[in-house]
């Protein structure tokens, strides 16, 4: 069974050493390395592509939240923090888990159990990438497979997932490059849809495809993208 590869990101050396020591009893976890700040962490995450990061929230220069906001694809995150207020934010943001320093053995054990459950499930289904979005004082940790629509708003985008919508500081062109083309399709200049949410397809009088999603919304593809979708899916 594949090991779960992780990075430890914390500006305090003793905290990093304590986390490494605490994780030694777990042979199915593999340490890839560590980072002392968000800038170093961003580089190592992009290079090593870990499955999981243990991330300190409060670091000098750039916080853990700001680090996640800078990433196109976010690994599974377990926040580590000395402050309960940050832990609550992390929990509300749907991070996998959070640990308050000093980390208690029983809390770590519960967190690892949750990690194993998610990771082992991903052995059979493609593990989804994530986006981290900060909107005002609210944080969102979104699995890409949960997005049903992405709408262009100038040089930015609006993400629709579950019953929520959030503003994201990336253009549709930027997002299109990181999205799984087997799952997402750009139907026109302003809209990308998740094909897993398509409930019905039908042509209009001009031969353009009408996409009805499972939430009842209907979107019309451009003539060019309609032809591309038909060819790709032999519709």
Can you tell me about this structure?
This protein is of the alpha/beta class and 235 residues long. Helix content is 31%, strand content 34%. It contains seven helices and 15 strands. The strands form four sheets. A five-stranded parallel β-sheet has the order 2-1-3-4-5, sandwiched between helices. Helix 1 links the parallel strand 1 (4-9) and strand 2 (29-35). Helix 2 (38-48) packs across helix 3 (64-70). The longest helix is centred in the middle third of the chain and has 17 residues, at 105-121. The radius of gyration is 20 Å and the shape is elongated. The chain starts with a strand and ends with a helix.
Work out the strand percent: 25-35%
Total number of β-strand segments?
15
Mass-distribution shape: elongated
SSE run: EHEHEHEHEHEEEEEHEEEEEH
- The proportion of residues forming helix, as a percent range, comes to 25-40%
Return Rg in Å: 20 Å
Structural class: alpha/beta
Biggest β-sheet: strands ordered side by side in the sheet: 2-1-3-4-5
What's the oligomerization state? single chain
Question: Can you tell me the residue ranges where pLDDT is under 50 for at least 5 consecutive residues?
Answer: none
Q: How would you sum up the major sheet?
A: 5 strands, parallel
Average of the residue pLDDT scores: 87
Supply the number of helical segments. 7
Task: Break the fold down into its secondary structure elements and pairings.
Blueprint: E1 4-9, H1 13-23, E2 29-35, H2 38-48, E3 52-56, H3 64-70, E4 76-81, H4 84-92, E5 97-100, H5 105-121, E6 130-135, E7 138-143, E8 147-153, E9 156-161, E10 164-168, H6 172-178, E11 184-188, E12 191-194, E13 198-203, E14 209-213, E15 218-220, H7 223-233
Parallel strand pairs: 1-2, 1-3, 3-4, 4-5
Antiparallel strand pairs: 6-7, 8-9, 8-12, 9-10, 11-12, 13-14, 14-15
